[in-house]
From TrEMBL:
Keywords: Glycosyltransferase, Transferase. Pfam families: UDPGT (PF00201). GO terms for molecular function: UDP-glucosyltransferase activity. This is Glycosyltransferase. One of its GO terms (biological process) is monocarboxylic acid metabolic process. It is an enzyme of class 2 (transferase). The keyword Glycosyltransferase applies.
Amino acid sequence: MEDSRKSHKPHCLVLSFPVQGHINPMLQFSKRLIHKGAGVTFVTTRFMSKTLHGLSSNPSIPLESISDGFDDGGIKAASSPEAYLERFWKIGPETLSELVERLISSGRPPSCIVYNSFLPWALDVAQKYGLVGAVFFTMSCAVSSVFYHCQKGLLEVPVRKQVLLPGMPPLEPQDMPSYVSDPESYPAYLGMLVGQFSNLDKVDWVLCNAVYELEQELVDWFMKVMPFRTIGPTVPSSYLDNRLQQDREYGLSIFQPEHDTTMKWLSTKPKGSVVYVSFGSVAELKIDQMQELAMGLKRSNRYFLWVVRSSEEDKLPQDYAKETAQKGLIVTWCPQLEVLAHEALGLFLTHCGWNSTLEALTLGVPMMAIPQWTDQPTNAKHIMDVWKMGLRPPVDERGVVRSEDIENCIREIMEGERGKEMRENAGKWRKITKEAVSEGGSSDRNIEEFVASLIDKL
Ligand code: UDP
C-alpha cells in the first residue's frame, strides 16, 4: 500500500492572479515542476481563461478556473479596484474550494496549492484540505522586501526620504515602488501588496521568481526569516540553450502577437541595430510621454520596433507610423522573448516590469529604463546601479522623459563607453541567470528540493 501510494506524482494547483505579468512566470514555473516529476493544473479566473491565446500550444498543462465575481469582464467590469478586490476575496476562496473538492471526487486530488502572493486567502483553502501551501512571488526580492518591511511596521509610508533596508542599495523615494512613494494614488493596491505577508508565518514554502546570484545578500537575509527559495528566471528553457526557432515554446497571452510581421522585419536589420520599445501589458503612458518618445525615436535615426497596444494607439502623433516607416515598425503586441533573443537587437527601452527585466538580463540586452509605476522604479534602480545593465534618463517637471534625453541615452548605450560596459555586463548576467536554472544551478536545486518534499509527503 505504502509503495503504490509513493508511485503517484504530487499534483500542484498553480493559481495565478489574472494579469499577463503573473500568468507568464507561473506557467513557466509549472513547466519546471512537470520536468521535475510533479503534475500540474494551472488555475486562473474564468474571465482570464476565456481571454488567453496559446492554450493549444500548452497541451500538457490542464487549465481550470475559479471566479473573481466578474466572469464576463474581469477587473475592467468592476466599478473600482477596491470593488474588484473585495468581491474576489469573497468569491475566490469559495470557488477555489469547489475546485479542490471536484478534483478530489474525480480522483485527481491536489497535494499542494502554489498560489500567487496577491491571493493570500488561498493558503486558508490549502490548509482546510490538508494541502501544502506555497506562496509564489512574481516580483523581485528587493520589491518584496519593501512590502515585508511595511507589513512589519518597519517602513513608514509614504516614503519621503532615503531608505536603507538589509541587502539593498540606499533607495531614494523615486526608487521605491509607487505604492509606497505615492500611496494616495493606489490605496487598494497598497493594502493588497502589504497583505501578501499577512499570513506567511503559516506557509510551507515561499517561492520567488528571482535569481539568487542577482540579489544574493537579500536572499540570504530572507532565508533567515522565512522558508524562502528563488526559482527564476522563468524564461522557457528553449531560449536558454539557443534551440532552433521552430522548437521554441510560447506562453499564454492576453494579446495576439504580430509574430510573422515582427520577425520578418527584424530579420532584415543588421546585428545590434534595433531599439525595441515596450511598456508591457498594463502601463498607460501620459500623452506627453508618448509624444516625447515618438520624437526621441525619430531623432535618434535608429531602427525601432515599438509595441503600442491598441488602447494606446490614439496617443501617437498623427501619421507617425507612415512618416517613420523607413526606420520603424509599430505593432500592437510581439513575441517579446523571440525579439529579445534576436541578434538584430541593440537596446531594450523598457518600463522595467519584472518579467521584462529578467528576460533582458537572461537574454543579455542592455536597457533604457523608463519606469511608470508599481515595482518598476525599484527594478530600474537595480538595472542601472546594481547590475549596471542600463541607464535611467531623468524626468522633467511633468514627470516625463524628454525626447533629447531619449535620443542621448540611445546614443550613449548603443555607441558610448558606458554602453560597452553594459554589453560586457550583459554577457556576465546572461551566463549567471542561465546557470541558475540549468541542471544543478541555484534555482534548479530549489525546484528539485520543493518537488522532492511533495513526493516525500505522498
Ligand atoms: N510581452 C510580450 N509581448 C509584448 C510585450 C510584452 O510577450 O509585446 C510579455 C513580456 O515578455 C513579459 C510580459 O509580457 O513576459 C510583461 O510582463 P512585465 O512584468 O514585464 O510587465 P507587465 O505587463 O506586468 O507590466
